[in-house]
Structure formats: structure tokens, C-alpha cells
Design brief:
Number of domains: 1
Shape: globular
Radius of gyration: 17 Å
Number of helices: 3
CATH topology: Thiol Ester Dehydrase, Chain A
Largest sheet: 6 strands, mixed
CATH superfamily: Hotdog Thioesterase
Order of helices and strands: EHHEEEEHE
Structural class: alpha+beta
CATH class: Alpha Beta
Helix content: 10-25%
Distance between the termini: 46 Å
Number of strands: 6
Length: 158
């Protein structure tokens, strides 16, 4: 399990005085980028391969409030990956300094080719590195169908 520690700042709270939902998103993003760097997916490396991560969705479930000045820990584990590495799914969990579970979130993402702006498979060297990612107990091999499992599809305005 990968973990990153934070302290809740003034800019992280909402009108109710607790951690804002947008702060959860920011902490998860920061955790993912730290994770990618620590596992060999630095910005320099991604640029070399011409790929970048994109988020399809984040589903967050809130259990307990957290407040300004309090430390929190955000964890990350890989809960799904397609055979070619194109699609990935992370599970994030939030804990306070007492180890109490504050929230959890499932995040589904993919890799895009930064020139064509289209989804792409993960380059072989990076796919190999992804084998070292910490995984959840319920890890799953993802397929393209898993990206539409909720039944949501684009609907343009007429």
C-alpha cells in the first residue's frame, strides 16, 4: 500500500469547516503523482514516451469529518489494470492520525498519446514497471467494457 501524509490547510476546508470534497480530489491527485514518480513514471519519463494519464471518474464515499490543522493519510492501491495497461483503476483511502477511516474513492483512468490525444496502450517499459504497483485484494484485469460499467455514455446537445 502506497501512502502519502498531508495536513489540512485553510484552503482545504469548506463553509461547514470540514475538509471540502474538492480537497479530497486534490489530495488524491497529489498522491497519484507522488506514486507515479516513486514507481518510475516521472513527468520526464512520461514525456519521453509521449503519454499522460487521464481520469474517467472518481467515486468518493465519505464516512467521517476531518478538520483544519489535522493530519491525514491518503493511501493508493491498484485495483484494476488492462492487459495492455491502457486502463487502470486505483483505490484511495483516507485516514486520520488515529487510523480512523475517513473516506474511500475508486478512480478509473487511462493513458493518452500526447500527440494524437487518443487513448493508447502503455509502452512496454512502463507496463513492466506497473507490475510492481501495490494491488488490492480484489484486483481485476480490466477490459474496455469496464470503462462503461455504470452505463454512462456521452450525449451531445442537439
Amino acid at each position: 500500500m502506497y501512502k502519502k501524509d498531508f495536513e489540512i490547510r485553510w484552503s482545504d476546508i469548506d463553509a461547514n469547516g470540514h475538509l471540502a470534497n474538492s480537497a479530497y480530489t486534490n489530495f488524491m491527485s497529489h498522491t497519484r503523482m507522488g506514486f507515479f514518480i516513486d514507481y518510475g513514471f516521472s513527468m520526464e519519463t512520461l514525456s519521453k514516451f509521449g503519454v499522460g494519464p487521464v481520469v474517467f471518474y472518481e467515486h468518493t464515499y465519505y464516512y467521517k469529518e476531518s478538520f483544519i490543522g489535522k493530519p491525514i493519510t491518503v493511501s493508493l492501491e491498484l485495483s484494476g489494470l488492462s492487459e495492455d495497461g491502457m486502463f487502470f483503476k486505483f483505490e484511495h483511502n483516507f485516514y486520520n492520525d488515529q487510523g480512523e477511516h475517513l473516506a474511500s474513492s475508486d478512480m478509473l483512468g487511462a493513458w493518452i498519446d500526447l500527440k494524437t490525444r487518443k487513448l493508447t496502450t502503455l509502452p512496454e517499459a512502463l507496463l513492466k514497471l506497473s507490475e510492481a504497483f501495490p494491488r488490492t485484494k480484489n484486483f481485476k484485469r480490466l477490459t474496455k467494457a469496464d470503462t462503461r460499467i455504470e452505463g454512462k455514455v456521452p450525449k451531445n446537445l442537439s
